[in-house]
Structures are given as structure tokens and as C-alpha cells.
Amino acid sequence: MTSSLYRLARQAVLLVPLMTCAISVHAQQILGCRDATPAEATLYSTPMMMPGVISPKDGTCFIKDLRILTHDGLKLAANVFLPATGTSGQASGPRFPSLLYISSWASAEWFEYLGQQHRMARAGYVSLSYTTRGFWNSEGTVGVAGEEDVRDVSSAIDFMLAYTPADPQRIGSAGISYGAGLSLLGAAKDRRIRALAALSGWGNLADQLYGNDVPNPTWLGILTASGQMLGRMDPTVLSFARIALNPDATQQQARELKAWAALRSPSSVVNELNARQPAIFIGKNWQDDIFSPNSTLAMFSRLTTPKKIMLQPGIHASVELGAAVFDKANPVWDEARRWFDHYLKGVPNAIDTEPKVTLKTKFGNVVETLPDWPAPELRSESMWINPRGAVRYDESCQCTKGQTGSLSAQRGAFGLDTINNALDTVATTGPMPVLSATLEAKGLPVLAQQNMILRDQGVRYEGPVQAQDMRIRGAPRIQLRVRPSQSRGMLVAYLYDVNPSGWGTLITHGARAVHWAKPGEGIDFSFDMNAIAYDLPAGNRLALVFDTKDHLYGVPVRFGEAFSMTIEAGDGVSALTVPVRPIH
Fold it and tell me: What average pLDDT does the structure give for the chain?
């Protein structure tokens, strides 16, 4: 291996941070590295330990401490892995497929994607990573995927083309979480991005921050705390976070929050993505309680680009992050590599003709494919929500009734079921915020003994014992009418798989709040629960439970403020609809 391929490395590393004018893609100086000395070759372990030195193991080279100059004069921290090649290191040499890795929220280029960057460099890709503005050593303030953040994606591509042997016709981008959203938003504005991998990202940011008028205090707290600790937050961002959590926020403030979030939503740029036709690969985790799968699936269904989505058990970024940092195989990243190989290298690996949807079930680890989303194989199974009514003795069964309502194919008589927020119930998304969902993703379910759900604070509706397995695939929808006791209140919904002993395994959940209702007046209160893939076994039954409190969902009232919610049930007023895959 000669050193001519990568010469000028030291000069380039020193010069790039000192640039004070915009990069010109017409005046290129390719970054380079030198050969390892005999002593270095003996001690060599990883590229990160010897930046600027060609690896005697695989010929790749890692260059750190780079600075990308943005359109508004800021500098963003970056690094790059160069692939092994036999070029002279001049601008006129051959070009290579290239990947831009965009950092996650509060993460940095100096650790987040090093494993995948090295892996892809060994596969012949230029792999550049940068830290988004406002975090760590990147200048500016955190704007949450605002216009300046999106323009930074193009600045990073300019840098890559100016200072590495990147092929302008074969550029891709990848990112987890914040980097996923920016990859999609960047591709909508910059035609040079021909393929991308968006992992654990979002579709509609308003749905995630304030979906169904309910904030997410657990994750909002994590995001704002980490943003302030590891970055420089734009005051506007903190202001909107406070609005989301404030039960006394006005309707105008709520509208402004949703409008602000819409501008930062990939779902808002679907038309631009469809016009530019980048190949879009998406990875999503079922237990992602910060960016639930629903808005991503809704966005995916509208895309007419080459597309593919993988859905699997896991909380936010848990499936992808370890393999991003460390150089190891991973189902999602491995599939993303196949995606890039096909759309940036032209490898005939048939990924473009495979089913567009691959999913793994919760707990069962059954892997399935669907041709698209929504899939024609899925059908909707609806059950009427019939009231429990008052506690009473029923002669027909010689039993006490009133503890549970029913989920039934038959419409029951109309009735009202009222619950209040005086106490919480055992129904929960998990007793320990974040940790419970993490353990659930690892196979430890969230359980609740159904008979312990307090009648005054919770209500459950049970379906019949299943004669055969029910394969739930997608977002269960609740058609509901309620009568709030005051202008504001909330219902949290839990869908359980209940065994003969009365223990319920949490399948999925959702919530909706009202802030400006007319007390006592019946209103439509329909909403979707989080999408899931779950197999309900024969011999068990579905149960739909409502209460008014959960740590994952922010209440729309002040501490100690009482309210009740009356559910209108029976006579075909309210229903649960579950998307299922028929068993043939």
C-alpha cells in the first residue's frame, strides 16, 4: 500500500478547522493519510487510536477534528473514514459512494457512528459524520430540525464533495432519532441525497410532542435536560416544551406549538420527497414511547419513492445504537447496508423487489413480511363497547355484574360508565418510566391483575375467549364518545391479553385529553393506540381498560384538581377496531 493515496492528511486536518470562507466544490483538496511506520503497524489496533494513519489491517483511514463551515458561518464538528483505494489522492482521482451520518439528539460525531462508519469504509464507502449545531463542539444553538439545521445537511454534503473522494452522484445519509428526521428533511431539500436510512425517527413531530393533546412528560424531561446539559438550547424550544406541559396553556399557544412542530415534520415534506425520489429505508421500534410508530407508518404509506420499513421490539434507538457505536453486525444496519449497496453501488441484491414491510412480533419474535403499508392482507375486526352498568345481581347467571363491560360483536343496551381521577389504578404502561419499556422489549411483559382495577377510577371491557390465535398488526382504534365533568380531562387506554387467571399482559396503549370542553356535553373522543404486532393466543381474551393517570402521559389538570369522564357505551356508540392478519 502506498502513501500517495492519502498524502496531505496532516495539512488537511490542520487547514479545515481554520477555514473562514465558504467551501467551493470546484476547488477541491482531498483529505489524505499516511502509511503506518513499522512501529505503528506493530501497535495498530483500530483507526480511532491512530487518526491520519492508513490501517495496515484493512487500508481504511480515520480523520478526526474536522470542521464543516455552514452557510451562516458556524463550524460543525466532524470526522471521516476513507476507504482503501489506489488513487493518487488528487481531486481528479476516482470517486466513491459516500454516506453522511447525522448525529442524534445530544450525541456527537466522536463516538456515535464510529462502528458503522468503519464498517462501511471497509465496504468501499466514504463515511462522514457530523454533530448537529448547538451540541457538544458544534457551534450555534439547538433548533430542533429547523431551517438552519436542514441547511446544515447540505453544508455537510458540500464539505464531503470538496474534501473527500465522494461521488456526487452516489450520496446517501443515515441517522438515528434526530439524525433520522434530519436525513428525511434534508433529502426533501437536497437532490444530491439518493438514498437514506432513517432509524427511530418521527413522522409528525406534533403527534409526538402533543399527540391527541397529550404531552409526554417523561421523554420531554429527558430531551430538555440532555439538551441543556450537552448543548445550547434555543429559548423558543424550551418555551414550547413548557407550553406542552402546562395544563393552563391557551388554545392559541397549542396551535402555535403544533404549527412550529409541523415545520419540523418529515410528514410535511412527503410531496417533495416523492418529487425527488430518494430511496428511503426506515427502522422503527414498537416500544418507542418518544416517537411512536404511528406517524411514521402514516408517512410511509404516503411515500411513492423506493421504500422499505423494518419494525421490531425495542425502545427508542435501542436496537440501532449499540451497533452504530461499535463495529458489529445488526439486523437493521445490515439491511440498511443492503439498501445502500443497491441504490448507491448498483449491487443486484434484489432488495428493491422484496416486500416493503418486515416486522417482528412483540415477545414472539416471529418475523413476517407485508407487501406495503397499509397491507391488503390485513382486515379490521370491530367489537362494540358495551357498558358495565351499576353493580347488580343477575338471575340469568346467578352472578354479580357491574365490574366489567364487554367487547362484543353484538350491540348491548345504551349505558354510561363514569370514572374519576381520585386515584390511579394498576393499569399502567409500566411501573418504572423507560426501564419498564426497556424490560418489555427484552421479553419481560408489563402485567396487571384485571380484578384489582379500581371500579371508581378505572373501567374494563372484556372480549370473549379466543377460539383461535388473533394476530394483531397495526394500530387498534377506539371509537368513543365521552362526557367530561369539566372543561378538561383525560382518558388513558390499555389493551391487554388476559389469561384465564385474570392476569393481563399489556399489548399496547394510547391516550387522549380534552382542554376546552363544555362540561357534561357528549363529545367524540376517538383515537388510535400505538401500533404493534402481537399474537393473542387461543384461550385468552382481549380487554380494553380506561383510567385517567399514567406517568407516560401528562395530565391536563393542575395537581389535586378533580375531574371525571363518563363513557357512552352500548347501542353502537363506541367500539374497538383491531387490525388483524387472518390465519389461513
Answer: 91
